[in-house]
Design brief:
- By secondary structure, the protein is mainly alpha-helical.
- α5 packs across α8.
């Protein structure tokens, strides 16, 4: 990691000083951007959107005019990491919270950025912003986040990257068991923690929004779509219809990022982006 990460919370919290580097295909970056929007920090922390296509230099700003981010004046996200520590060799990941003054990365861990937005940036929250990490619920929120990372996101990845049929069957069965358990949970709860929207819901939304479009065709997790779980489907649609979640969601960019560039060649040995399926059920 760059040298700056040796101290937690080393950077001062100020308005209009930081820029969140984001790309739609990355579920980890999506967590941070949803929180930024939900909490009203989009008026305090600006957004740099990298191209969805990973190249040999990973994330770039080729979608911006002139191929550079207009505020940070760089072509590649890697330049920001090199500004932070010239000896750093990667990963050059998103999200990255960048100090606009110095063009250096002050935080690149998605859960840390999410937690900073919900706690350290609280003086800049909008008046109607939800409390995503209330003190009385913090242990339970942390337990849910760990479970989601281990069993939902981790479960899908274990199934998708396994090399044997036996392991795939075991991992896929365990993944769908978790979805069934979540469906039962949402039969009696609006959110993961009753009627309180929290960080844990942001962390759960980001892998599940990719299930039908990516995990089913790419990881072979065809057994069930989200709509096969009525309570889980209601929960996901409820989140998707919130402006902060919808604005941070881009189905087309998910496909472009997964099927094109360096990632596309790894999975498919060709760069053909399939047609989007009918997604009108998300809007109804």
């Amino acid at each position: 990691m760059p040298k700056v990460y040796k101290e937690d919370f080393a950077y001062p919290v100020e308005a209009d000083r930081y820029r969140l580097v984001f790309s739609f295909p990355c579920p980890y970056a999506q967590r941070a951007d949803i929180a930024r929007r939900l909490l009203g920090l989009d008026n305090v922390v600006s957004l740099a959107v990298a191209s969805p296509i990973k190249t040999s230099k990973v994330w770039d700003f080729s979608n911006d005019t002139g191929g550079k981010d207009p505020i940070l004046d760089v072509e590649y996200v890697s330049e920001l990491y090199k500004n932070t520590d010239p000896e750093y060799e990667g990963p050059f990941s998103v999200p990255a919270l960048v100090d606009i003054k110095t063009k250096t990365v002050v935080n690149s861990e998605s859960l840390d950025i999410l937690r900073d937005f919900t706690t350290r940036f609280k003086p800049f929250h909008a008046d109607n912003a939800p409390d995503l990490y209330p003190e009385n619920l913090r242990p339970e929120i942390d337990r849910w986040i760990k479970k989601i990372i281990d069993d939902v996101l981790g479960g899908a990845n274990r199934a998708g990257y396994t090399r044997s049929q036996e392991e795939f069957d075991q991992n896929a069965e365990a993944y769908f068991k978790v979805l069934a358990d979540l469906d039962q949970h949402f039969a009696e709860n609006q959110f993961l923690l009753g009627d309180q929207l929290t960080e844990a819901d942001l962390v759960l939304y980001t892998p599940l929004i990719r299930h039908d479009l990516l995990y089913m065709p790419i990881y072979g997790l065809f057994h069930h779509s989200l709509r096969d779980y009525p309570n889980l489907w209601r929960y996901m649609k409820q989140l998707y219809q919130m402006p902060a979640f919808k604005a941070a969601t881009n189905f087309r960019e998910y496909q472009v990022g997964q099927y094109s560039g360096r990632t596309g060649r790894i999975f498919f040995r060709r760069e053909v982006v399939p047609m989007l399926p009918d997604l009108s059920h998300w809007e109804k």
